[in-house]
What does this fold into?
Amino acid sequence: MESKVNKGTEVFKISGDWKRQADKLKEKFPRLTDSDLKFESGREDDLLERVEARLHKKREEVIDIIKKGQPTT
It folds into this structure.
């Protein structure tokens, strides 16, 4: 589940249980919807763009928010 970021060189990877992470994000950011957080393998950029638009945050901020909710390995 890796995707090269089109607008930079950082690789964005979702790990762990996405449903659980999405639920936590919706608790923290109630304006996020299930549609915003829909995840499809290989389409991480689409997910990032939807969350960026909904939260009015930059890509790097969204990646940081999502990474904070991921399990550490």
